[in-house]
Specification:
It is a single chain. The protein is mainly α. It is 78% helix and 0% strand. It contains 13 helices and no strands.
């Protein structure tokens, strides 16, 4: 029972984090020492079906609770206190970088090829921001197109859901679906959430085995690229130059985000 509660709690934290633009649920899973277990449970689901379903089920319950309980709170706080909140998120992202560097198994100074991989990750995120406007504009008047669009968007967003360094919320922002998704979550709009969820599940099943192999077999390639993804997402979260009282609040919130993620990573490491 204790293990299930811990898994549920980690799912809740990761679910809440996925609502924050720029904060990667995959990175949070690494910080909480649960990422490898999640990949393995999905990739080898039938190997120990009962055990994997229980693990994924308790984790999913926590994740859904995190999404539905905190969506409106996070959205309202970010709207009312934009500079301090985005500074907090920025600190959390920066706090996620050291664990990723450790996971990359890079000894000493980064080699040239690993720097190239980091730049490649940054470049991919930069290219994503050049997408056409209203790429996934959803028109409820045409139901078949509406449903297909949401399923396809869900498949693409699934990559961000399981890949550390690219946040689900950032992908939603890129596809102009962030506000519609947050609104659908807060109002339990199942006509929006169900097709999106179907796409997410399909995308996870299609990509998880390849991702697991890359992360396990080629960490010195995959992790620098993921670090590049994370660095590339920073401009999306950076709130700009603060003014007034925010000159004091923003550095404090940035430090709080960084220290909070660092402490969380260390505590999870002790529990692993």
């Amino acid at each position: 029972m204790k293990t299930h509660l811990i898994n549920c709690s980690k799912g809740l934290l990761i679910g809440a984090s996925m609502l924050i633009p720029g904060v990667s649920g995959g990175t949070m899973a690494i910080l909480l020492n649960v990422y490898d277990k999640l990949l393995s449970a999905v990739s080898h689901l039938l190997r120990d079906l009962k055990k994997n379903l229980i693990f994924l089920g308790t984790f999913a319950i926590g994740g859904l609770l995190g999404v539905f309980l905190f969506s409106r709170v996070i959205l309202n706080l970010t709207e009312q206190f934009r500079f301090p909140m985005l500074s907090l998120f920025l600190g959390a992202i920066l706090g996620g970088l050291p664990p990723l560097v450790r996971s990359s198994r890079v000894n000493g100074v980064l080699q040239l090829r690993q720097i190239v991989y980091v730049l490649l990750g940054v470049g991919v995120v930069a290219l994503m921001s050049l997408r056409p406007d209203n790429l996934f504009s959803v028109d409820r008047g045409n139901l078949p197109v509406y449903l297909i669009t949401l399923v396809f968007a869900g498949i693409l967003c699934a990559v961000a859901l399981i890949l550390p360094g690219i946040s689900l919320s950032y992908m939603l922002l890129v596809f102009d679906l962030y506000e519609p998704t947050m609104s659908a979550i807060s109002t339990l709009d199942l006509s929006f959430l169900l097709p999106m969820g179907i796409g997410l599940i399909a995308g996870i099943l299609l990509t998880v085995k390849a991702l697991e192999k890359a992360m396990v077999s080629y960490p010195q390639v995959s992790y620098p690229i993921i670090i590049g993804f994370l660095i590339g997402s920073l401009p999306e979260v950076f709130p700009g130059i603060p003014s007034g009282i925010n000159w004091l609040l923003c550095p404090l919130m940035l430090a709080a985000g960084f220290l909070g993620i660092t402490l969380l990573s260390r505590l999870s490491g002790e529990d692993a």
